[in-house]
Amino acid sequence: MFSWCGPRRIAGVVEGGDAVRQVIIFRGEDGYWVVECPSLPGCVSQGRTKEEAIANITEAIRGYVAVLEEDHPPVPEERFEALVVAV
Q: What does the alpha-carbon distance between residue 30 and residue 21 come to, in Å, rounded to a whole number?
């Protein structure tokens, strides 16, 4: 498995105080599920299952935000809009 984060926000906080981030998940060429957080450039992870991929990106997002907070640059807000386009 791999996860990396190089640094969006749906307005709101879920029960328990966790921030909400939108992620995109898709099946990679190798059969693993790839998941990325568009609001945090370079924040990408993967997993054998969707559940594992989601757990991995959650950890990656938390680590990404923690580093930003430690180094004091602003944490990017979630500003993602998803559209489906017919081609």
A: 26
